Structure to design on (939 residues):
């Protein structure tokens, strides 16, 4: 680790402005951590205030249902994404069949579709009045609902399916990276020892990839916990839906905060389990001996199976939703344009761009502060600052609303008392409030990427730069940042796209008369007006595709060399960005 | 050594766009943050928080702005306005609150967020039973929570009361939106006040057992479901019938409406459950005079006429004519017990929805 102990270099003797005793990095890190922690602490504090008989009522009525549904949803989506993500990753990494090269990147694309958008689309297709059931009724002459059986899309099962279809790429991405990293020699050893391909997969490849897959699945589960749009639309009572209900329908902030705190505990257990699962990661990859992947040639029937195994997730997760939205957009784009589409898009771009820039700056700052590592508690503090991703948006939104309201009115009270001037609301109901929420939630993405990016730069570089007289800031600017550009750009894009999709915080924190693409689509779709909002939904999907394409190119490059060493930082960054 | 200056050059060049981008972004942020403050400067401004949807309120706002030259800024949301007002405290920009339901308004009053409306005009325009006794809020329009029955599958007289919805012959034939929606909570509250909690809960369970599908969608979607054959009876507010029948923009809604009859239930006992849309002035209002003027306009002949004609609601001001279409549905007996009774049963109703698990 490089040391920042002041070196007696000649330049520092010049009469430049200096901060003699304050360590900017330590103080800055602490400040960021405190700012980021505030909303969460506010929720916890609020949970301690009495909520009347609301809690009693919750325990008596809906709490059990909330816990049960949340657990089922997480397990369902977790298992679904694990099976699809790992299975497709293995097939495209290890086998040769028609379409393999396309599927390698195409399997990522459903990631661009927010879960609530796919939920709207499939409801539109599959509900009683939708075209599919209409066709069935026409074909068989059914008159009413009682004449035939059809699964209800607005249900827990529906929610699990929808989320699985758009979240499996997280697992796919990380599982594939892990499979690519594995030494083929290990697999060959397994085959030489008489194990078939299936046994080798289950006994060797899968356990070796377990840490990465665990990260992928836990990312998926956090996204699942965070979801508001889908469960709201499907009326599936999960924790997030319950928090909104208690807070807004029962008007009990403290009751909502109590639910939120319970959810937080859920998340902490999840993060703990995930870390526990990852603890042995360092012992993997004992062989550095890496050769080209074997690429099993599949027989025609098996190849067909492989083809469909990959084609179905892509079709259901992207092609059908995009097609339906596209068809609607052709007919109804004028309605979307009439509803101030351009302004709304501008809002989304502004908020997401702003949040991405701030998150990157802070993320790099934290990561570099960690690298400087002067103060022993910095590691703990930075870890804490990066916890936001694990906290569902609904929880953060309550904390931020309450915290900023308190802050505004405190500042205002102070200003009135001291200067006789009212400062009004400085943060509440402004772009700042939403941006703050985004940054708190997505800081861990940028921080993780920056940390991973920095981790690949040898400490000798720091040593050389410092010996040549550069200070920590100058070393960061002149040495590290240029080298981490790739990681930073990827992280910025990821944050940007996540902000574009973000729904629960945006709904609550946005300024009034201020729609973003996500809130617009949610509002219209909830009002049975999906066609009128289809252009906006397509825009969100379109924005989400950009980073997916970048990731795909990265994967393609990795494949070109058939060599794990060629995997660009981005893949690993994503893995390490996981909280 | 020769590479180092070059690196520096590159870095500076690459860092600059990031820097300028963040400056631009910051500038925009401050601008948007300052925009609402600027609005305070002018006095002819009324800031409105509205739970009522924009398509219902926009025509009224336009008419008021044209008439007075004032600037009305409305924020529409289906949820969370109260929480927002609370957290903004005395600095809230909102002057006026519009709600679609009496209970929504009662919550604002219970949280001490309102101040009395001192206006002889409103007192003269709106009958006392539709105003708060302490003048904290006033009703503006009335609507009935009606039943929509299939023209082909429901025989006349088969469903004439809310109680019928819970009877065995309606098994699998009822559609409604979420039980947590204010309209349904208020309906349940009215049943609680009429029959007591125990009987109301049995009724709610009965309705739940008779649902054709899980509660979902809005009121119009229920009528659509009747047309599609998914269910036979739907619960919905009266004005949506008019909105659907006259919907030229989405003509398919005319077909939905054409498939149903509107039924005003409980004509032989307590009457049909009615609710009001209401307005109030916030405690923190910065433009009190302007807010009173705006509310006076909403209670005037002009505005009440717009409510009646373009929204198909029942105007509360005496002497304002019903829209001919609404009149054609016939006069009906309204459950006109004091609205405050319904309000007092509101909490019990919200909880009962959970206890019964109506939505799940």
């Amino acid at each position: 680790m490089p040391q920042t102990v002041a070196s007696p270099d000649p330049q520092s003797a010049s009469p430049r402005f200096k901060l003699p005793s304050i360590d900017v990095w330590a103080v800055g890190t602490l400040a960021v951590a405190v700012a980021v922690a505030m909303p969460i602490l506010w929720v916890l504090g609020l949970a301690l205030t009495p909520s009347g008989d609301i809690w009693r009522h919750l325990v008596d009525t809906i709490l059990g249902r909330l816990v049960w549904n949340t657990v089922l949803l997480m397990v369902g989506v977790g298992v679904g994404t694990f099976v699809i993500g790992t299975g497709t990753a293995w097939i495209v990494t290890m086998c040769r069949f028609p379409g393999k090269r396309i599927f390698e990147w195409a399997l990522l694309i459903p990631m661009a579709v927010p879960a609530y958008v796919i939920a709207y689309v499939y409801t539109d297709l599959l509900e009683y009045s939708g075209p599919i059931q209409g066709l069935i009724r026409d074909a068989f002459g059914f008159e009413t609902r009682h004449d035939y059986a059809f699964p209800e899309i607005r249900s827990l099962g529906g929610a699990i399916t929808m989320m699985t279809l758009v979240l499996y790429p997280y697992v796919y991405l990380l599982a594939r990276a892990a499979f690519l990293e594995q030494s083929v020699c290990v697999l060959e050893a397994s085959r030489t020892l008489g194990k078939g391909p299936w046994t080798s997969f289950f006994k060797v490849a899968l356990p070796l990839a377990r840490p990465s897959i665990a990260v992928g699945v836990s990312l998926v589960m956090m996204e699942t916990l965070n979801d508001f749009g889908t469960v709201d639309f499907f009326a599936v009572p999960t924790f997030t839906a319950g928090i909104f209900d208690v807070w807004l329908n029962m008007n009990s902030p403290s009751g909502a905060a109590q639910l939120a705190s319970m959810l937080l505990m859920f998340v902490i257990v999840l993060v703990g389990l995930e870390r526990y699962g990852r603890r042995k990661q360092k012992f993997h990859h004992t062989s550095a001996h890496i050769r080209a992947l074997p690429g099993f040639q599949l027989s025609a029937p098996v190849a067909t199976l492989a083809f469909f195994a990959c084609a179905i997730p892509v079709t259901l997760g992207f092609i059908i939703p995009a097609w339906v939205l596209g068809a609607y957009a052709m007919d109804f784009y004028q309605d979307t344009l009439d509803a101030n589409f351009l302004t709304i898009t501008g809002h989304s771009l502004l908020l997401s761009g702003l949040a991405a820039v701030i998150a990157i700056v802070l993320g790099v700052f934290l990561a570099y502060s960690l690298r400087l590592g002067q103060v022993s508690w910095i590691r703990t503090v930075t870890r804490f600052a990066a916890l936001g991703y694990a906290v569902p948006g609904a929880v953060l939104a309550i904390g931020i609303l309450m915290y900023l309201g308190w802050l505004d009115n405190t500042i205002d009270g102070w200003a009135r008392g001291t200067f006789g001037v009212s400062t009004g609301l400085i943060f509440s109901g402004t772009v700042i409030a939403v941006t703050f929420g985004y940054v708190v939630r997505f800081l861990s993405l940028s921080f993780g990427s920056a940390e991973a990016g920095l981790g690949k730069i040898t400490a000798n570089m720091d040593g050389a730069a410092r010996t040549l007289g550069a200070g920590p800031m100058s070393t960061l600017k002149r040495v590290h940042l240029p080298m981490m550009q790739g990681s930073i750009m990827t992280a910025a894009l990821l944050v940007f796209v996540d902000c574009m999709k973000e729904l629960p915080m945006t709904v609550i924190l946005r300024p009034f008369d201020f729609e973003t693409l996500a809130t617009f689509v949610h509002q219209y779709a909830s009002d049975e007006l999906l066609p009128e909002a289809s252009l906006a939904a397509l825009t969100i999907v379109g924005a989400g595709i950009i980073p997916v394409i970048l990731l795909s190119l990265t994967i393609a490059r990795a494949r070109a060399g058939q060599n794990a060493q060629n995997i660009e930082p981005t893949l690993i960054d994503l893995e390490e960005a996981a909280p | 050594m020769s590479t180092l200056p070059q690196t520096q050059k590159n870095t500076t060049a690459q860092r600059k766009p990031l820097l300028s981008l963040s400056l631009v972004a910051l500038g925009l942020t401050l601008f948007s943050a300052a925009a609402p403050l600027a609005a305070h400067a002018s006095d002819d401004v009324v800031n409105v928080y509205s739970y009522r949807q924009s398509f219902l309120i926009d025509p009224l706002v336009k008419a008021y702005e044209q008439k007075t030259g004032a600037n009305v800024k409305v924020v529409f949301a289906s949820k969370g306005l109260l929480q927002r007002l609370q957290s903004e405290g005395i600095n809230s920009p909102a002057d006026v609150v519009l709600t679609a339901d009496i209970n929504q308004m009662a919550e604002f009053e219970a949280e001490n967020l309102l101040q009395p409306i001192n206006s002889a005009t409103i007192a003269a325009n709106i009958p006392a039973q539709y105003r708060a006794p302490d003048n904290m809020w006033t009703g503006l329009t009335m609507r009935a929570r009606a039943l929509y029955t299939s023209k082909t599958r429901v025989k006349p007289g088969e469903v004439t009361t809310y109680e019928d919805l819970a009877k065995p012959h309606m098994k699998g034939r009822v559609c409604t939106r979420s039980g947590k929606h204010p309209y349904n909570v208020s309906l349940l509250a009215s049943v609680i006040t009429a029959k007591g909690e125990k009987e109301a809960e049995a009724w709610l369970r009965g309705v739940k057992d008779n649902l054709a599908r899980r509660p979902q969608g809005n009121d119009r979607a229920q009528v659509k479901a009747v047309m599609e054959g998914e269910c036979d009876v739907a619960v919905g507010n009266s004005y949506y019938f008019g909105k659907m029948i006259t919907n030229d923009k989405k003509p398919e809604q005319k077909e939905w409406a054409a498939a149903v009859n509107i039924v005003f239930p409980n004509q032989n006992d307590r009457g049909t459950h009615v609710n009001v849309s209401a307005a109030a002035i916030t405690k923190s209002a910065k433009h009190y005079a302007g807010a009173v003027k705006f509310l006076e306009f909403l209670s005037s002949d002009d505005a009440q006429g717009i409510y009646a004609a373009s929204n198909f609601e029942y105007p509360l001001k005496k002497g304002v004519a019903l829209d001919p279409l609404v009149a054609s549905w016939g006069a009906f007996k309204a459950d006109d017990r004091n609205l405050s009774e319904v309000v007092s049963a509101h909490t019990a109703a919200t909880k009962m929805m959970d206890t019964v698990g109506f939505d799940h």
